[in-house]
């Protein structure tokens, strides 16, 4: 029986994904994603329709508004050891029809809070690994912060038809955030599993065991050694995991391919543990192999 996870995705004891690999680089990458997103959305017409809502509504969810849960709130919960439900607060006071300038200002507040934490707190690196409550369960603070790149990438894809091609670096960072946080879910659930996103030009994988997880660029490795994999372009992986694509249709057409389908089934119990992902119990009772895995892929995201 093959090792789970495979050796190149076997985490070291206590490893917590990208947040322990190089936290300073991860913060820099996350800030760069914010800058790309702000630039990409700065000229968007807020009234433009996007996926049954306006562009303004889509972009506004990434901003900081009066009443928003902020980085300071996340940090306070982490320092206090609160890992249950996020500290309750008021609903964000978002204007009914925010202007482009208001949206950009709200996004900058989100971005700048991260920059201030890095610049003003000498203990930020140690604090970055403290668990903090999120809507999808407790995650290390820096993992949760980096995770914002995933919904930003999805929103950029939504806007691309009108604004222009979404920035490739933003999509790549969104993919990394998706893979890394998926590994965190497996570690939190105590599941041994791995999964790799094999996209044009690179492959990035995560492996979890014994409550730890790693996230690594395994582009130079033999694809067969990376274990279970989802093979598609970056946009397809992002939209599939967000439940926005016909997974079975993409699989039939060859736009989405799967390697080691039986290994992908190790992720079924992980889905059961993630709050807010509907259908976990039904998925666990579903038929095996392709039918189950194609359903599973749309249940793994953390940015629904």
Structure explained in plain terms:
- This protein is α+β, with helices and mostly antiparallel strands and 304 residues long.
- 48% of the residues lie in helices and 12% in strands.
- It is built from 15 helices and nine strands.
- It has helices at residues 18-21, 23-41, 55-60, 71-80, 100-120, 124-127, 141-146, 149-163, 168-189, 234-241, 247-253, 261-264, 268-273, 280-284, 290-297, and strands spanning 49-50, 53-54, 131-132, 139-140, 193-199, 202-209, 212-217, 229-231, 257-259.
- The strands form three sheets. The chain has a five-stranded mixed beta sheet with strand order 7-6-5-8-9. The chain has a two-stranded antiparallel sheet with strand order 1-2.
- The longest helix is centred in the middle third of the chain and has 22 residues, at 168-189.
- 46% of the residues are buried.
- The model is unreliable at 278-294 (pLDDT under 50).
Question: What is the fold's blueprint, element by element?
Answer:
Layout: H1 18-21, H2 23-41, E1 49-50, E2 53-54, H3 55-60, H4 71-80, H5 100-120, H6 124-127, E3 131-132, E4 139-140, H7 141-146, H8 149-163, H9 168-189, E5 193-199, E6 202-209, E7 212-217, E8 229-231, H10 234-241, H11 247-253, E9 257-259, H12 261-264, H13 268-273, H14 280-284, H15 290-297
Parallel strand pairs: 5-8
Antiparallel strand pairs: 1-2, 3-4, 5-6, 6-7, 8-9
Helix pairs in contact: 2-5, 2-8, 2-9, 8-9, 9-10
């Amino acid at each position: 029986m093959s090792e789970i996870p495979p050796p190149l995705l076997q985490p070291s004891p206590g490893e917590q994904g990208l947040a322990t690999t190089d936290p300073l680089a991860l913060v820099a990458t996350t800030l760069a994603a914010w800058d790309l997103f702000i630039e990409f959305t700065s000229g968007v017409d807020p009234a433009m329709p996007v996926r049954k809502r306006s562009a303004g509504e889509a972009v506004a969810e990434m901003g900081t508004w009066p009443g928003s849960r902020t980085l300071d709130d996340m940090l306070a919960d982490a320092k206090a050891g609160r890992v249950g439900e996020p500290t309750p607060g008021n609903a964000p006071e978002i204007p009914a029809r925010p202007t482009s300038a208001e949206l950009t200002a709200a996004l900058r507040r989100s971005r700048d809070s991260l920059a201030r934490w890095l610049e003003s707190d000498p203990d930020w690196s140690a604090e970055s690994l403290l668990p903090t409550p999120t809507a999808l369960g407790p995650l290390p603070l820096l993992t949760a912060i980096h995770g914002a790149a995933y919904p930003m990438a999805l929103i950029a894809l939504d806007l691309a038809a009108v604004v222009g091609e979404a920035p490739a670096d933003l999509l790549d960072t969104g993919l990394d955030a998706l893979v890394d946080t998926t590994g965190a879910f497996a570690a939190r659930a105590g599941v041994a599993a791995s999964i790799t996103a094999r996209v044009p030009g690179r492959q990035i994988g995560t492996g979890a065991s014994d409550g730890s997880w790693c996230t690594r660029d395994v582009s130079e490795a033999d694809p067969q050694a990376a274990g279970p994999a989802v093979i598609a372009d970056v946009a397809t992986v992002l939209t599939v995991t967000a439940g926005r694509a016909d997974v079975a249709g993409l699989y039939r057409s060859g736009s989405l391919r799967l390697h080691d389908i039986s290994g992908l089934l190790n992720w079924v119990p992980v889905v059961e543990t993630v709050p807010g992902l509907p259908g976990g119990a039904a998925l666990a009772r579903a038929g095996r192999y392709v039918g189950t895995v194609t359903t599973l892929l749309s249940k793994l995201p953390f940015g629904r």
